[in-house]
Automatic annotation (TrEMBL):
Residues 275-766 form the TonB-dependent receptor-like beta-barrel domain. InterPro entries: Beta-barrel_TonB, Beta-barrel_TonB_sf, Plug_dom, Plug_dom_sf, TonB-dep_rcpt-like. Keywords: Cell outer membrane, Ion transport, Iron, Iron transport, Membrane, Receptor, Signal, TonB box, Transmembrane, Transmembrane beta strand, Transport. This is Enterobactin outer-membrane receptor. One of its GO terms (molecular function) is siderophore uptake transmembrane transporter activity. Signal peptide: none annotated. One of its GO terms (cellular component) is cell outer membrane. PANTHER family: CATECHOLATE SIDEROPHORE RECEPTOR FIU (PTHR32552:SF89), FERRICHROME IRON RECEPTOR-RELATED (PTHR32552). It is found in: Cell outer membrane. Belongs to the TonB-dependent receptor family.
């Protein structure tokens, strides 16, 4: 196996040597540095802004026009066009799984990659259960560009981000003017308005405002308006002789549907499965949400009765204020400070199918079963239909507040640049899991809840509610109340050894402290009149109440370093290499796993506090007036621990991945250009608690990921398409059941009606391709021909009109 991998990498290396030789034959050293070249000045993961060809990092820049043409329906879908980044954006506007270059997704979220806004994290941890960072991140027209750094220097420029950084850089108001964009779904209900405006105020003051508001159903049929909310941003900048100061804010209040794995039929074999929609459920357009399933009543985290409107879905609220300050101290010294406070809260409500099957398999398996009717009626259920035992993920995001500060001082000499700083942060994780179990039919057209009745006529369920809690999973109603604090000194030095050779070395150490408690290690069963109607229904005879509190008080340390070299042969060609080490601290994911969370000397706890990543990368960069090419060979080793709620499985695994990444653009003439990205990854589990999976490919890791974007520009007309695809992968680490490869085609056409008025029509997944991103089952063996999987949505069309002023 390794020999084959090495052969493939040698082939890719030969291709790049050929590209280099070709560039030498077409571009000479006598080319003026003033010649126009396709390159970007980047700031993410670098101590000083510089052209990307002069950095020893892999970094891509996305501009708003490219993002709009890619037709993303959620923020996470934007990342699919970035080489090396695997964005499983099937969960809706949040709760997406994101990773880089074969680094594993062992649970939800993005443990090894941070999303930033203006150089500071959105959340300190990317994989907080039901509070992932993309839930609090929205792209709008106030974003000037997105920079995506893979691997490299991320280990020393941010905490908990060894695999990469995606940085949303917002407008400051320095550029006069603005825009209004009205978007509408053509075959689904979506109405969204984006606005941004910037202007100088005089005396070197600048103001920028922007944001969006939207409403609609989203790309799947939920039976109600599931997307409803928006975001407002404000920036005030003051420039003075030796620096500037900027104050900015964001207010986000957005409700969107959260999509969990859904039932899908499967036949054939594990290695050659045939997936199809169930007769009453279209996997591309259906949703588990229903207008008949709108209210939930449960016992909250403090023992109170909690009433929830399931239509709120993923409700994300963020109130943010930030500060940026930089000052030229003279003699080559500069001071820079970034700080931001965010008050984050909300709720996460999503139905999850714990089991799916026939009437006999689901309904008749309920203890005391006599008959079944649709809730609220006396109508007997359809004996030929499919049914679900559904767990409602009802999680209160009580307090996810955070504060980040990064103070840096830099000094520039003739051939040396030094940057040193201190990062300080605090992140609250205060959540309450208040889950119930329901019975409902499988249908994509407002599924009905089901009541089960005993032979004596006693209702075993209450309007579809089977249990207050989730006894099938051992309870899992929980409270988290923890705080994670980090102080991280860091330093980077850049040396121009000779004219064309630049070396950079950086180091960072995170001093982490965790305090607080969590409860729910036991779910005590009590008799409570939850609906307060004066009668104890059958589910109220056994109500799960959170019990068993565990204190948390431990410390951790993460040492990270990064050493890179960049050699520019001329203004068009460069080679680079980098060795780095970093880590990501385990947050709430290791709680409830049975460790001693107050003993810093416990080797078992010490082994899971920090997830470690070691990386080596190197490559070649080509720039010219009509093309660019970035090629990166990469190697990564990952050591991590995790605990998954839905499976109750604790893991401690070691992974290895290697491969090659291409990122290119070629402008053939003034009418036609093409962008493309390709990533090949060979990943392997090197060690695990479960020795039977050692040597296997980590779940959901494809060999190839790719994106292609041909684009035509003729006068006022622009048209093209994006192809985003992936080869097959395994659903789970056991490497049995295969998820087929897929290619999504997203065409677009834009026409400039007037100088400042543009019409755009685009489609997402125009051919209705089935794209499975994850599945709960690891094999068809032992199933009833139905598994639970998340897929990307089917075909959607949208149009927008943009007015620039």
């Amino acid at each position: 196996m390794e020999a084959n991998v090495i052969k493939k990498l040698l082939v890719f290396g030969t291709m790049n040597i050929a590209a280099f030789m070709f560039s030498q034959s077409t571009t000479t050293d006598s080319t003026s540095v003033k010649d126009k070249m396709i390159d970007e000045v980047v700031i993410t993961g670098n101590s000083n802004p510089k052209a990307s060809i002069k950095t020893s990092t892999s970094i891509s820049t996305l501009k708003p026009a490219d993002i709009i043409n890619a037709a993303p329906r959620t923020t996470a879908e934007i990342f699919r066009t970035i080489p090396g980044i695997r964005a499983e954006s099937s969960g809706g506007e949040g709760n997406s799984n994101i990773t880089v270059r074969g680094v594993p997704v062992s649970a939800g979220g993005s443990r090894y990659l941070l999303i930033q806004e203006d150089g500071l994290p959105v959340m300190q941890f990317g994989d907080i259960a039901f509070g992932t960072q993309d839930q609090f991140t929205r792209f709008d027209s106030f974003v000037s560009r997105i920079e995506a750094l893979r691997g490299g220097s991320a280990s020393v420029f941010a905490s908990n981000s060894p695999a990469g950084i995606i940085n949303f850089i917002t407008k400051t108001g320095e550029k006069q003017g603005g825009s209004i964009t009205q978007q509408v779904g053509l075959n689904y209900k979506n109405f969204r308005t984006d606005v941004d405006y910037g202007t100088p105020l005089g005396n070197n003051y600048f103001i920028g405002v922007g944001g969006f508001y939207r409403g609609g159903d989203g790309p799947r049929k939920t039976g109600y308006i599931s997307n409803n909310g928006g975001q407002f941003r404000l920036s005030l900048l003051k420039k003075f002789e030796k620096g500037s100061i900027r104050i900015y804010g964001k207010y986000l209040d957005d409700r969107t549907a959260a999509y969990m794995p859904m039932p899908i039929a499967v036949s054939g074999s594990d290695s050659n499965p045939d997936y199809s929609s169930l007769s009453n459920y279209n996997i591309l357009t259906g949703a588990l949400q229903s207008s008949n399933f709108r209210n939930d009543l449960t016992i909250g985290g403090n023992g109170q009765v909690l009433k929830s409107d399931i239509r709120d879905g993923m409700h994300s609220v963020s109130k943010t204020v930030g500060l940026e300050f930089n000052y030229d101290l003279g003699s080559g010294w500069k001071l820079e400070e970034k700080a931001r406070y965010a008050a984050n809260d909300g709720q996460f409500l999503a139905p999850f199918p714990a089991s799916v099957g026939s009437k006999a398999e689901i309904l008749e398996s309920i203890a005391g079963y006599g008959s079944a009717v649709y809730a609220g009626t006396n109508t007997a259920v359809d004996s030929n239909a499919k049914y679900m035992k559904t767990v409602l993920f009802n999680t209160q995001l009580n307090n996810l507040n955070n504060f980040f500060s990064d103070l840096n001082i830099s000094k520039k000499w003739d051939k040396v640049k030094l940057n040193a700083g201190v990062y300080n942060s605090s992140q609250n994780i205060n959540l309450s899991w208040n889950w119930n179990t329901y019975l409902m039919e499988v249908s994509d057209n407002n599924a009905r809840l089901v009541d089960v009745i005993s032979p004596t006529g006693t209702k075993i369920t209450d309007n579809g509610l089977l249990h207050y809690g989730v006894p099938d999973w051992g309870g899992v109603n929980r409270n988290y109340d923890t705080k994670y604090s980090v102080i991280a000194p860091h330093a980077q030095v850049e040396i121009n050894v000779v004219k064309n050779l630049t070396l950079d070395l950086g180091a960072r150490y995170d001093f982490g402290k965790v305090s607080g408690s969590f409860s729910g290690t036991q779910n005590t069963m009590r008799t409570i009149d939850v609906n307060q109607n004066g009668t104890i229904e059958t589910p109220e005879q056994s109500v799960a109440v959170v019990d068993g509190t565990v204190p948390v008080n431990y410390r951790y340390g993460i040492f990270g370093y990064s050493f890179g070299a960049n050699y520019t042969i001329n203004s068009h060609n460069a080679f680079f290499a980098r060795v780095s080490k970093g880590g990501s601290a385990s947050a709430d994911r290791i709680l409830f796993a049975g460790y001693n969370y107050t003993n810093n000397d416990d080797p078992a706890l010490d082994a899971v506090k920090v997830n470690k990543v070691n990386q080596i990368e190197g490559g070649y960069k080509l720039r010219s007036a009509n093309c660019f090419l970035n090629t990166t060979l990469f190697y990564a080793k990952t050591i991590e621990a995790n605990y998954e709620a839905t499976t109750q499985i604790r893991t401690e695994n070691r992974y290895q991945s290697m491969g090659v990444e291409f990122d290119g653009f070629y402008k053939i003439n003034k009418y036609f250009d093409i962008k493309a990205g390709l990533t090949y990854t060979h990943a392997e589990i090197k060690d695990a608690i479960d020795k039977t999976i050692v040597g296997n490919t980590p779940r959901r890791t494809p060999k190839f990921m790719y994106s292609i974007n041909p684009n035509v520009n003729i006068d006022k007309l622009s048209l093209g398409f994006f192809v985003v695809g992936s080869t097959k992968a395994y659903t789970q680490d056991v490497n049995k059941l295969v998820m087929p490869g897929y290619a999504l085609v997203n065409p677009y056409i834009a026409y400039r009606l007037l100088k400042n008025l543009t019409l755009n029509v685009n489609a997402n997944n125009i051919f209705n391709s089935l794209a499975i991103t994850e599945a709960e089952e690891g094999s068809m063996v032992g199933t009833n021909g139905i598994i639970r999987a998340r897929t990307l949505p089917g075909r959607t069309f949208a149009a927008s009109v943009k007015f620039d002023f």
